[in-house]
Amino acid sequence: MKCNSTRNGNGYVNFERAVTDCLPADGGLYIPSESPDLRRWILYTNEHTPFASIAGALTSACINDEFSPIICETIATRAFPFSPKLTKYTDRFFTLELCNTPTGSHKDFGISYLVNCMETIFQLKGGFAIFLDVTVGELGASLARALRGKKYLKALLLYPKGKMRGLAESDYVWNGGNIYPIEIDGTEADCHRLVREIFSDRALVEKFHLTVANTANIGRLMPQVFFYPYAFSRLKKDVHSDIYYAMAPGNYSNLVAGLYSWRLSLPLNGFICPSTNELILDMEGQCAVMDQMVPFDKREPADPANPSNLERLEDVFHNNTLMLKNLVFPVQVTEEQVAQACRKLFMKYNIFADHYTSSAYAAAQNNRELTADDEGVVVLVVRDHPALSADYVKHTTGEMPLMPENIAAVLRPTVLGREAMPATRQTVEKALADCMAGC
To answer: Is the Cβ–Cβ distance between 84 and 110 less than 8 Å?
Structure first.
């Protein structure tokens, strides 16, 4: 699969290069340069096709010029011992749950795939990489789990003081694991600043073979494309009308992945999401990305620490402007409407929903005229387990969701037993050198 930067339509690299050298030098983000027509294959799948098989087949279809079908199938099989879940509540309302994972977060899908993909690349061709990421939540626990037993990958994780959680002592590099955690004497913003400083130095990135495990890396984004063909494989037997996915924007990665699946010829009719300051309805009532008004040469480089996929969304809009204005439907929702949606999901369907899921459902409720035609179906995308937002759920519904042990482990504070380190570039460089010595 050829990839190019959002800021350079001609500088092609292969998928391997885009994943291992995750940020183009021009400050953009890697995007796929081509979209094969997979309609015939997608229509062949059914409700018995495992998610790992769908992921392996789509991987092979996209990067068959770099890896054999057997290698692609192996990556997917190793990455996905877990699967999304599609649940039917009525003939016109379904949920697509992405939280049936080891940490209860949708991030597990992308991180597990990225880690197994990169480990396979280095097994075949030599080399290694170090992930440099900031985490205050599930990313650290997810990455630690995915890296267990890997030989060619390590991760340097920056935590603001007092925010470390979800790690086991066996994960630490000095105990034979693959995680080098650093508790920074500062805030999350300080941690983000340090990662930006490191990645702004291309020589340093190359010296330490640095990459990221967030969606700035196209290898982390790509497996999110698989969610929608999987959902369709379960829907197509019962649904013969329009299909709309309702989702919270987040950093826009699931929305971009959904649009990429549409470009692969997946049958769907659109995406409903709460509008944001960046993704709005214009004066004509059509979807618009506000950043489009700012030329690329006037922008900062893409953020390796806290990425947004708006630039990828802009690229899709630029190439398919007329069609996409009829595929993405931002809807204004208020906090009160979000709370009402949370309560309605619980009372009507016995669904515990976090703020993200509730906001997506509120957007779908506020745009019911869209799905009324042809008795359209709404698939509500549930990103994370409600126990990760138990306080919000309890406050809004009056009921506390069950807390599975795997979620409790993710939320459990981790005491490193070392002093917090100064928020300086020297701190990170020294730790990277220690990490590299063990590679």
So the answer is: no
- For residues 158 and 186, is the Cβ–Cβ distance under 8 A? no
Q: What is d(CA 21, CA 212) in angstroms, rounded to the nearest whole number?
A: 9
CB of 118 closer than 8 Å to CB of 219: yes
Q: In whole angstroms, what is the distance from residue 164 CA to residue 155 CA? A: 15
pLDDT in tens, the chain (439 residues): 889 899 887 778 999 999 998 899 899 999 998 887 888 888 889 999 999 999 999 999 888 888 899 999 999 999 999 999 999 999 999 999 999 999 999 999 999 999 999 999 999 999 999 999 999 878 999 999 999 999 999 999 999 998 989 999 999 999 999 999 999 999 999 999 999 999 999 999 999 999 999 999 999 999 999 999 999 999 998 898 999 999 999 999 999 999 999 988 898 999 999 999 888 877 777 777 876 667 777 788 999 999 999 999 988 887 666 666 789 999 999 999 999 999 999 999 999 999 999 999 999 999 988 888 778 899 999 999 999 999 999 999 999 999 999 999 999 998 888 888 999 999 999 999 988 886 6
Q: Which amino acid is at 86?
A: L
Which residues neighbour 95 within 8 Å (Cβ) at sequence distance 6 or greater?
A: 86, 87, 89, 351, 379, 380, 381, 382
- For the record, the structure tokens of 379 come out as 């698939």
H/E stretch holding 21 reads: none
**Distance separating alpha carbons of residues 5 and 153, to the nearest angstrom:** 25
**Rounded Cα–Cα distance for residues 143 and 146 (Å):** 5
DSSP H or E segment with residue 400 = none
Could you give the angle at which helices 253-263 and 227-235 cross, rounded to 10 degrees? 60
Report the predicted TM-score, pTM, of the whole model to 2 decimal places. Answer: 0.94
DSSP per-residue string spanning 334-354? -HHHHHHHHHHHHHHH-----
Centre a 10 Å sphere on the Cβ of residue 413 and count the other Cβ atoms it contains.
10
One-letter amino acid of 355 = H
Q: Got the DSSP string for 53-92?
A: HHHHHHHHHHHTTTS-HHHHHHHHHHH-SS--EEEEEETT
Which 3 state secondary structure label does DSSP give 371? helix
Parallel/antiparallel/unpaired status of strands 243-246 and 270-274: parallel
For 398, the 3-state DSSP assignment is coil
